[in-house]
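Memo to structure team: turn this sequence into structure tokens by end of day. - J.P.
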Amino acid sequence: MTVDSSMDVGVVRPVARNRERTSGRPYRVHVRLTSEEWRDIAAAAARSGLRPTGYAGEAAVAAARAHVSGCGAGATRAELAAVQREVFTARAAVVRALQVATSTSGDPALGDVTAGVAGVERLDAIAERLHGLLKRAST
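Reply from structure team:
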């Protein structure tokens, strides 16, 4: 209880303990974290200008919505990393196919090699873009 000093000293006003929440989010999720996880969330929250609880809520909702079809939420870091691995695998397969084509025929058709090289260059560009997205997702 607090004392209201604007009136008589003897008037005591109770403190509102169960005030209505103003966040517009009536549901809660309780999460246990390690010290390292807490530090990571607190640092990310500070960078984004949020409190850790608000940041965790935003991140959880974004991750949940990323799996909903037709949702505008971006991909998660794990999803981007999986796509990056697939791009690297496809690039390696194209390079191997080009090596086989040039080593077996001795005189490969110039169009086939040019198309293969263009394909490798396109995969390299995609991999570079994914790398940038992953770096942004990590910060």
